[in-house]
Amino acid sequence: MKWRWPAKRYQPMRHGFSLLEMLVVLAISAMLMLLATDGYAAVRARAARHEVRMALWRLAAAQETHRLQYGFYASRLTASPSATAATDLASPILPPAGWNFSLVALTEESWELQAVAMNPGNDPACAELRLDTTGMGFARAMDGRDTSRDCWRR
Q: What's the sign of the alpha-carbon dihedral 125, 32, 37, 46?
């Protein structure tokens, strides 16, 4: 008698994944993306807030330099063609994108700088930042709440 290999039974080959397995993986990856996106948006908002605070501090230093040079504070933050050197800051500082800077209060002895977000939807808790002569930082949310503690923490 001749030896033969045993007959192979038909077994379907399982290459790939089932639809249920793919849906589970898709749901898990969607949840992870949602968590990562929220975290990334918060980091970007904090970085933009830091950039605005640093620009306000540079403006404050420029105001103090102007007072040392001319004996009074500058009345404008940006140079204009009709202004004299004494009324403008010596080196105007460009605000970060999406923010407007202004000088909201000016006396012989003090000043107050303001930065307002053009689109506060990115960081509604810190829609307006202020810095005064004493170095005190103030912040206000879109709804008018005082958020100085959160927005100016180091």
A: positive
